[in-house]
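Input/output pair, single chain:
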Amino acid sequence: MIVHKGMNNISKKHITPTMEDYLEAIYNLSKEKRSIRVRDIAKKLDVKMPTVTNMLKTLSERDLIDYEKYEYLELTKKGSNIGYNIDKRHQILRTFLADILKIDFDKADEDACKMEHAVSPATLEAFVDFMEFIENCPRGGTGWLDYFNEYREHGQPKAKYLERMKQFAQEYNTKIKEMEKIKIEGEK
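Output:
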C-alpha cells in the first residue's frame, strides 16, 4: 500500500492497490469520454456495479472523486494526480516488460498492473533510465536486445559467444571512430 502525500485527515489512510486500480480506471476513462458512469467502471474493471458503487463511496469520502449516487462522476485534483501516476507507472512497466524483455503484450500488461502498486518512485526511475541507456549506449541498442532475446531462447554456446564478441568489437571500434570524428569537427 502506498500513502499519498498532501491529503487531509480523512484521506491520510492508506490508498490500497484496489483503490489505485479504480482511480487509474477512472483516469483512463476520463481521457476517453466526458461523462463516466458506474457501468463504465464496472465494464472496464470487470466487476459488478454494486462493487463499484461501494468503492466510489469510499473514494468520495476521501475526496478523491466527486460523485453523487446515480450521477456522473469525476476525479478531484488529488484523485486525478494519483490516477495519472498509477497509469504512468503501468505504462513504464508494461513498456519495459513488452519492449525490453519481449514478454507477450497481454501478459506484460497483466504483470504491470500487479507491479505498479509496489514499485517505488526510485525503482521506476531506474527502469526509465535503463531503457534510455539501452537506446543510447554504444554497447546497447536494438542489436543488444536481440542478442539478449536469443540468449533467453537458446542459451549461449561458446562458439557463438566468441563470434558475438568479435562482432561487438568491430561495431564498437566503428562507433569510437565516428564519435572521435564528431568531436574533432566540433572543436574546429
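The beta strands are 65-67, 73-75. Helices lie at 17-32, 38-45, 49-61, 77-100, 105-115, 121-136, 141-154, 158-187.
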